[in-house]
Structure formats: structure tokens, C-alpha cells
Design goal:
- This protein is of the alpha/beta class.
- About 40% of the residues lie in helices and about 20% in strands.
- Strands 7, 8, 9, 10, 11 and 12 form a 6-stranded mixed β-sheet that branches. The protein has a 5-stranded mixed β-sheet with strand order 4-3-5-13-6.
- Strand 1 and strand 2 form a beta hairpin.
- Helix 1 crosses helix 2 and helix 2 packs across helix 3.
- The C terminus is likely disordered.
């Protein structure tokens, strides 16, 4: 099975270009030339027989296939990186194990981690997939970046990002089921819920519509699964607008209504109260808060120069 995998250099070049939205920026990250990145991506496209980027004047546009592959590559590289960290001897006092959902990790955290490593080269990070606070039952975790309401008992939680939420669907879904015209007709469609129904309840409340929980709804624990259901044309998802610029620009997903700021739910950095006072943990928390107050740098800028 593994002998069918493309070369690692091609996958690394592709993942960086897809995440950063630019051959030039990928080249800077990988310390090679833009031409080298373009050649690796072209070789990967030829090997797969699939177009990954549409080349336009001075920019590239990622195809839906590219978004699927980039997501898988990012998760795989994160797992390998975590495994390497576990086998390299580290001082227990200077190693942090952070649980984080895969969507936040790939769309927000991963593009910024180099900033933390430069500022704190003496602190090792281990990232593990934790879709929500239920994963905190793992005693090895020092902290979790989780989507929720910050009301977890025995944890100190600080809000990181309160994003804009928007219902999204794929063109395939809309072709099959039609486009909802308002919040009331939206409830007649298949909706995917993350964690519980509260996010949709709040969205309908903002839009002055009573929420009705129908049997056609689906509940998942991972935002990546919710996004994938929407991409595959299976349901309408309530998504974080800031994380989906690539999907919107490529046409893989469409906004059904205007976005609105999340009323209560947000991304939180949560640590057990018992672990308060850890210097590496405080350094990571301070860095997260600094990054969230800075201009966004993880958005997919679709340009090639």
C-alpha cells in the first residue's frame, strides 16, 4: 500500500502551497525556489492524474481535490511530528502536550507554530488530536484548545477566537435539494451539528427563528467531519467563516446567508486548575493570546507571487 504513495518532497511542496495559497510563500517556508515548488506540484499532479491548482495570471486557485489532499497531508505530518517528539528525549518540565481539533490545528495553529518555536526554542510541543473537551480525560494532556462555551469545571479557560459563523453547503447539495431562502426554510434541510445543538440554536436565535430539532440532523464531535459532510454534499454545516476562504474562492462551498459573530461559543485555551503556574504552559498561553490579537496570517491568499 505504501509503495503507491507519491514522493515526500512532492507532498511537502503541495501541502505548503495549498496551505499558504502561493508557490512563492511555500518556497520561502521550504527554503527552495518557487520554480522548484511548482515542479514538485506538477509532478504530483501527473502522478495522481488530478489537477490540484488552476494556474491563473499571477495566482493559483486550489481545486476541491487539493483541499481534500491538503487536509490529509496536514494531519499526517502532524502525527509524524508528534511521534518524533515522543521518541526524542526531552526534559519533562519543558515539554507541553496540547490537545487540539484538526480543523483549528490545520487552518490556524499550524501556519503560526514557527513563531512560537523561534520565541521559545527550549519548549517542546506535542500536539494530539482532541476534537473537544471530552479528550481531556487523557491525563497526559497539559492543555486543550477546544470549541465550546468555556464553562468547564475545574479548568481555567481563556477565550482565543470568537469567529463568524455561516451556514455553508456544496453546489452538489444545492443542486439536489435547492437553496434555502430564509432561516425558516433552512430547517427543512439536513443540518450537521458539532458537539450539540447549541450552535445552531444560537444562529437561529440571532435570525429570529425558533429552532426545531428534526430527526434529519446529524451530530458529530469533530469540525473536520462536519466540514467533510458539507463538502461531500450530504448536509449543511454551520462553519467558521475565517477558516474557509479557500473553499469559498474555489467554489467548493457556498455561503447560504450572511455570517454572524458567535454569540457564546468560541475557541478556548483550557488548562486544569491544578496545573496553574507551569512556566512553559504560561509561555504558550501568552503566545496564543498575542497571536489571536495580531492580524490573521493563516488565510489562504490565492496568489503566486
Amino acid at each position: 500500500m505504501f509503495n503507491k504513495l507519491p514522493p515526500l518532497l512532492s507532498l511537502r511542496a503541495f501541502e505548503s502551497a495549498a496551505r499558504l495559497g502561493s508557490f512563492k510563500r511555500a518556497a520561502e517556508e521550504l527554503a527552495v525556489t518557487p520554480a522548484a515548488v511548482g515542479a514538485q506540484v506538477k509532478a504530483l499532479e501527473q502522478r495522481l492524474g488530478v489537477l490540484l491548482f488552476e494556474r491563473q495570471h499571477r495566482k493559483i486557485v486550489a481545486t476541491p481535490a487539493a483541499f481534500h489532499l491538503q487536509q490529509a497531508c496536514n494531519q499526517a505530518f502532524t502525527i509524524v511530528s508528534g511521534a518524533i517528539e515522543t521518541i526524542i528525549p526531552q526534559s519533562a518540565e519543558r515539554t507541553l502536550t496540547i490537545g487540539v481539533g484538526s480543523l483549528f490545528a490545520s487552518r490556524w495553529l499550524s501556519p503560526r507554530l514557527s513563531h512560537f518555536w523561534l520565541a521559545h526554542p527550549d519548549i517542546a510541543l506535542r500536539l494530539t488530536h482532541t476534537p473537544d473537551m471530552a479528550g481531556f480525560e487523557n491525563d497526559e494532556l497539559d492543555a486543550v484548545i477546544a470549541w465550546g462555551y468555556g464553562d468547564w469545571k475545574s479548568y481555567d479557560s481563556v477565550e482565543l477566537i470568537r469567529p463568524h459563523l455561516v451556514p455553508v453547503a456544496s453546489p452538489r447539495y444545492l443542486d439536489l435539494h435547492g437553496r434555502p431562502q430564509n432561516a425558516q426554510t433552512l430547517q427543512q434541510h439536513v443540518l450537521v451539528h458539532e458537539i450539540d445543538h447549541r450552535m445552531w440554536q444560537q444562529w437561529f436565535s440571532v435570525n429570529r427563528t425558533e429552532f426545531v430539532n428534526r430527526n434529519t440532523s446529524t451530530t458529530v464531535r469533530d469540525s473536520v467531519i462536519a466540514l467533510q459532510l458539507a463538502l461531500d454534499g450530504q448536509a449543511i454545516a454551520l462553519a467558521v467563516e475565517e477558516f474557509l476562504e479557500g473553499e469559498f474562492s474555489s467554489g467548493a462551498l457556498e455561503k447560504l446567508f450572511e455570517s454572524s459573530s458567535s454569540k457564546d461559543a468560541a475557541y478556548y485555551f483550557s488548562t486544569p486548575t491544578a496545573k496553574a503556574g507551569s512556566e512553559p504552559l504560561q509561555s504558550f498561553s501568552d503566545w496564543l493570546l498575542k497571536e489571536t490579537s495580531a492580524p490573521a496570517t493563516n488565510r489562504l491568499r490565492i496568489d503566486s507571487d
